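Fold description:
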Amino acid sequence: MLSGSDDKKAKGLNSQSPPAVDQSDKTPNKFVQFWRRVYRPLGFHKGYNFPLCWLPFSWKFRQILTASGFIFGGALFGFTLAKLSYLNIGGNASSSFANSASPGEWFWYRNGIYRIGITIHLATILPAGLLMPWQFLPVIRHKVLMLHRINGYAIVILVIISNIGAVMIVRRAFGGTLATQAGVGVLAIMSTVSIALAYYNIKRLQIEQHRAWMLRAMFYLATIVTLRLIMIIAALIISQSSNYYTTMECGSVRTIYNAEPQKIQSLYPQCTQPGSANDTLVIVQATFGNGQPEQIGASLRMNFGMALWMALLLHAVGVEIYLGLTPRETNRLRQVSYERQMERGMKHPGSAGLTSDRFGDADPWKPLKEVELAGPGVPRDHEKDGTR
């Protein structure tokens, strides 16, 4: 995502030859040969990068560095495609959001501020989910830089607006518990800050930091996919016991049984008594498998907050593992950053953006030429004075 003034420099960055392919495997087997024919035309030159960005699984540990690869680019793209029908928010179609949301949720989203919030959120996060995986295809960055830039700006705008919509509806999302409100708030902050830092670093031509923060943003946003899996598994588990209950508003119950008032009378008579309001609470058993609609909704809202925090933890750890296991790409991009910053005449070339050697106690970064001239026998700065 470069501005117009950065376009000329960026073209030089993206037009340079890609990193050398590892030739250590002289006689790759047929499986490796097949996948090389798949991922190399897309611009990938390391076998492990492709499955982590686009494929749901791989048989080799080197090709899937972390189990979180299950929910990366390809799964995010597929999940978004499956949810595109939610753009028909209040329609009568069976695939619309009104008819596909968790039982009882539509009551709060029918009108008012929550209808505005859910419309904003879905109308922006779904397009962002379709656009984001394409940012990580090397062939687009190398061959169609303008598309990469425009796509990046669109993602920044869409994600920020979608986070605003998510915060607007969080009080009623799956019961709006404190765990849910805190989780959605933290996720919104983490994704927004990550995108802001990625934007700042690319404006400073600190390319390796831009890569790192955009990866973090995508991992955090893809939490929603893992969240759904955990939520369904947890709902199935708690359904095996008959000891899990939660509360649901009478308004939600009335929305579920809108055409069957006799069921409301028999199951939840409190909701039919004179003076009962929409926010009057009734106790509902959490049963996902063979339960009534409100019981299915109760089983989902009961564990939504827990599933959100678990998924966020998995993704936060997973992205750091991936970044820690790809230091060569980080070092290569930092060298490229140094060259572009030197051409631009920036201060602190190689560290013009947000880097640990400027704001932490890391050893000062040196470009490759200085390291080669210094030779292996020259001690580093911390070795000279005995400090770290």
